[in-house]
Write a structure and sequence with these properties.
With 92 residues, this protein is mainly alpha-helical. It has five helices and no strands. The chain has helices spanning 2-10, 16-31, 34-42, 46-59, 64-75. Helix 2 (16-31) crosses helix 4 (46-59) and helix 2 packs antiparallel against helix 5.
Length: 92
């Protein structure tokens, strides 16, 4: 269910980054109070609850998902994007 919700919210097919988001959501759910989760399930509110977690993690620049995954992604570049003149030559 989490994977489908992530795809619906982000409008992107599941990729490695979104799989990380799914894992982050599962971790949050596992760390959450079991009684509260059970109450949400019994009252048919679990889908809304998970949706809020996904939206908060995906859109916030203060979320654990942002700090753990997105910042590193923004700082990294593909090697093909680096001009050849900036690639150091390593002699053996």
């Amino acid at each position: 269910m989490v994977e489908k919700l992530v795809e619906n919210i982000t409008h992107i097919s599941l990729n490695a980054d979104l799989e990380d988001l799914c894992q982050m959501v599962y971790l949050i759910l596992m760390e959450y109070d079991e009684k509260r989760i059970q109450d949400l399930w019994e009252n048919n509110q679990i889908k809304y609850f998970i949706t809020r977690i996904i939206i908060n993690q995906y859109r916030s620049v203060n979320s654990p998902f942002h700090y753990i995954f997105r910042i590193h992604q923004k700082r990294s570049v593909e090697i093909s994007e680096i001009p050849e003149s900036q690639i150091p030559i390593v002699e053996q």
